[in-house]
Amino acid sequence: MNHLDRIRGALYGHLCGDALGVPYEFKAASALPATILWTGHGSHGQAPGTFSDDGSLMLCSTLSLSERGSFDATDMGRRFLRWWREGYLAAGGEAFDIGGATTRALLRIEQGVPALEAGPSESRDNGNGSLMRILPMSLFGLGLSLDQQADLAHRASRITHGHVRSQVCCALHSALVARLWAGDAREAAFAAACADLRGLYAAGDAFAEELTHVETFEKRGGSGYVVDCLRCAWDAVRDAGSYEEAVVRAVRYGNDTDTTAAVAGGLAGFVFGIDGVPQAWRDALRLEGWQRVALEEAALALAARTGTGNASTLAAERLEFIA
Q: Is residue 264 helix, strand or coil?
């Protein structure tokens, strides 16, 4: 499995996890059916293969990075606003789900507030709305130093979620992806990623204190709380024998099923690669043709950033994937 396979697996894995979870959102774990199926309708009345705000804002982030060639918070914020107002990169062209903190942030961007100052930053503003879209930033940061990775994650979070806790969860996601990329075993990767950030944050500062909260958090409820979401998603992936097992486990937590499965799906897709994500699910995603092409181009750009593969190999792979 080459690096491009892992990048593609992560991006498609995120979208498929989201779409798997959409029909079951808001259901308690005890109310879920015995078998979690790839289906539609359910909570939002959407067709099978529909991804939610999780997938759309992840796509906005991915294409911003790909087309701008760097992290551009202003461009990313504008794309988020286009999704909300115009249905840009929304499944079926309709944005049907959005969180409270994200809504407030986008209203502020619309009013002219700089993107990096838009995200609400009170303790009550720690929903999972920045974590759910952080995957492309984590992939973009591979090969950079830990402090550069964390800085990117912190700043990307602030567009919609400015509290330090949300920033730390996003940085921990990036550190975790970096550990997986380096070949760490899954059972050790989370602790190693925490230790990496522990070495970066100054003892006793707000970031270090929030990292301790994330590390020691024990509840697993599948809720929209950013720490719960990250811990549930990683637990679903850590011991899973396949991509499908990981995302089904994530949905099984109930409640915010689409986001937990999207975050888990991105991580599991990176672990198991594109071939681990069921072809039938990938084909059924409600992506327009140009969106699939743009996603493949972005995956190639992300893979090329890490220096994996030579130019001719990447060119051949490009022809195969987007022909």
A: helix
**Is this prediction's pTM over 0.85?**
yes
What are the helix (H) ranges across 201-310?
206-216, 226-238, 243-252, 257-272, 279-284, 289-305
Task: Give the other-Cβ count within 10 Å of 96's Cβ.
Answer: 16
CA–CA separation, 56 vs 62, rounded Å? 10
190, 173 in Cβ contact below 8 A? no
Going by the DSSP 8-state scheme, the letter that residue 41 receives in this structure is B
User: pLDDT tens digits, residue range 69-93?
Assistant: 999 999 999 999 999 999 999 999 9
| Separation between Cα atoms, residue 226 and residue 123, nearest integer Å | 11
- Residue 41 pairs in a beta bridge with 46
Rounded Cα distance between 199 and 257, Å, is 33
Cα 258 to Cα 4, 172, 223, 233, 263: the distances in Å are 25, 20, 11, 11, 9
C-alpha to C-alpha distance for 36 and 168, rounded to whole angstroms: 31
CB 263 within 8 A of CB 253: no
Q: Closest by alpha carbon to 2, among 306, 290, 323?
A: 306
Give the pair of three-digit tokens for residue 6.
């892992």
Give the integer Cα–Cα distance in Å for 14 and 269.
7
Residue identified by tokens 């992300």 is 302
Of residues 309, 302, 307, 310, the one with CA closest to residue 141: 302
Phi, psi of 46 (to 5 degrees): -100, 155
Tens of pLDDT, residues 144-160:
999 999 999 999 999 99
Alpha helix locations (H) across 131-242?
Answer: 135-140, 146-158, 164-181, 186-200, 206-216, 226-238
Q: Is the predicted pLDDT of residue 322 greater than 50, yes or no?
A: no
- Helices 146-158 and 164-181, packing angle to 10 deg: 140
Domains of the chain with CATH codes: 3-322 (1.10.4080.10)
